[in-house]
Amino acid sequence: MQRFRSMRCLQKFAAIHSSVCNHFNQERALYSRDNFKANRAAALAEWRQLCST
After folding, report:
1. In principle, which of 10, 30, 47, 51 could form an S-S bond with 4, CB 3.0–4.6 Å?
2. CB atoms within 10 A of CB 39
3. What is the pLDDT of residue 53?
């Protein structure tokens, strides 16, 4: 928290980081490699589609 100049900056960062982290964070140890790569590719494609609009 000391790296942020104000609480508002911290809140903005936390809001953006949590939505991105939740979108990409998949529990790697619970999936096979092929399944993990397919899920990651789908998440990345969805993220790119959201960012392009």
Report:
1. 10
2. 14
3. 64
State how far Cα 29 lies from the chain centre.
Answer: 18
pLDDT at 47 over 70: yes
**pLDDT for the residue 26:** 64
What distance in Å separates the CA atoms of residue 53 and residue 46, rounded to the nearest whole number? 11
If you average pLDDT over residues 20-27, what whole number do you get?
Answer: 68
Instruction: Tell me if the pTM is above 0.70.
Output: no
**CA–CA separation, 44 and 34 (whole Å):** 15
State the CB neighbour count (10 A cutoff) for residue 36. Answer: 15
For residue 1, give every residue at least 6 positions away whose Cβ sits within 8 Å of its Cβ, in sequence order, or none: 10
